[in-house]
Write a structure and sequence with these properties.
Helix content is 0%, strand content 26%. It is an all-beta fold. The strands form 2 sheets. Strands 1-6-2 form a 3-stranded antiparallel β-sheet, with no helix packed on it. A 3-stranded antiparallel β-sheet has the order 4-3-5, with no helix packed on it.
Length: 92
Amino acid sequence: MEGHQMNEDPYFGQAPGMLGPLIEWAEITPSDGEDLAVRPRALDCAVGGTVAMVSATGSEATLSLTPGVPYPVRPVRIRATGTTATGIVGLW
């Protein structure tokens, strides 16, 4: 990464744990037919609303997300149908 020196990170080279801070993120585009490329450790959003999710076992649930509050869920899919939140970000 340009402008970033890895030696400035005292934790460089250590494996991140499930209880450690989230170190990566990506925007999620809801889809009724496609699973997420990476299964997140948590979800956040820019504009609050509902998020219709599917778990690894196929169960479905809808959560109400509030912006700036990471929700510790690990869905395999975010469905377009039933999702009103926007700017959804997967964190891991």
